[in-house]
Task: structure prediction
Amino acid sequence: MEKLVYVIGHRNPDTDSVVSAAAYTRLKNLQGLSNYRAGRAGKINPQTEYIFNRFAMPVPEFIPDLVPKVAYYLNEEPVSVPADISLWEALERMERESLKVLPIVNQEGKYKSLLHYNAFAKYILHKINPHKKSAIPTSINLLISTLRAQPITVFDETEVRKSLIVVAGSTEETFRTHLSAEMPENALVIVGDRKEIQRFCIEKHVRALVITNGITLDKDIIELAEQNRVSIIISPFDTSSTSLLIIYSTPVGFMGDETIQPVKLRDPVRKIRQSLSQSASRCLPVVDDEGQVAGVISEGDLIKEPNLEVIMVDHNEPTQAIEGIENYKILEVIDHHRLGNLSTRYPITFINKVVGATSTIITNLYREQRVPLDRPTASILLCGILADTLVLQSATTTDTDREAAEYLASITGLEIGILGKELMSAASQINNRPAEELVRMDMKEYQEQGAHFTVSQVETDTPEELVARKDEILAELARVKNSEKRLFSALMVTDVTELTSILFVEGEKNFIAQLSFPKLEEGVYVLKDIVSRKKQLMPLLAELVEKAQLN
Result:
């Protein structure tokens, strides 16, 4: 099974992060890599929602976390059998495909039970116990297929009912007495060329005559069987082999282990370990949300590498990555931010450019690899560049960004100035959102000098409306700060019309004491001409953190 590769940005994603994941996945898909899938690690903001809706592009899949799940350790295509096939056919498939277990499904295709060799052994031992008369559930059709038999007369061929196996191995008189003491209508009589016994069985209305060794029948016997509605099939095997094989004609659904409950694709691995170790087969069936079999997971699967790999876009710091990413191989990093403390056990493709947006890097990868850009993809890439550079006005904007934007505009026919205003207007539709959403919408976590802190950023054309909500915003920042014992938590509100920002801060006293920004109100500071969190604000904060740690 080909490994799934998620292309995913940072937690609390901004527009550039989501656009980059979608566009880079599209590039990989166009190159024939269908196993690449775009993901996002959080809720999209109003601006991103506007962009994907306007250009009719599917929003990357929401992935709440990458905590190891059952789905990530399935390495084989799902295999199952319907409950109404014979045990013999099911076992043949297990042997042919080297399966330890075989899920059994009902008529709706949903999981019913699990066939494994322990269950099979118990069933066979029960049926061949000479001290018990065990009835065999089977149908005439299953008898025919299991025995590779020739049907002569067949009645009620699909009906499954329990029947006794009776072998005509004694004298005629003894056999007559024996059969009469049973319930003939439920008897499967195994007999050779003994015509009188054949006739007697038919007159007693046995369920079926199983003729051994490929023996042909007289015409009068066949006619009598038709008159009495008695099924006759001819087995190519001798009596002993025929008797044994009849046991295997049981529908496999009768002997599956129903005590083994399935696990789901999204179940965390930690949740299933105990059930797995207690399973008779050391295997568990896996089902999807509809109960359809998705595969089988074993203890051995959990010590192998998962069938999932990751490409990080628009970030390179583990603290900003989706939860659980440390469990998987990182194939690539494509980013335009400072280097964090990411480390890997193996070489990876690492692309880090001094540009204003990761969307710029993705655009140029299309050009370098000579993959044509379709208009919808080019449109969202242009939006990604404009959103992350404040319509090419941010201090992070480079000539590379401007050239990429002009190139995308030529493909799409979109006017940069008009589109930029639309994007800024969409970004501004946040003022009425709850404080929790504002703070967490584009929140990034950082580590400097051993200190942990968060900096969020939102963009608006009416920052004064958020200043009026100072108390609830600072209260939410305090909750974020205290939840993980961080040095501080801050919200940067960027005015997209004036190209300046306001900073809300909740922090420890030793850090607050280092802040020298003009104070607008308690906990609120003016960041004149600062619009870039990455290039302008973070170097200042890193310096202040260092001072705070020394004091």
In short: DSSP finds 19 helices and 24 strands in the chain. The CA atoms of residues 106 and 197 lie 40 Å apart.
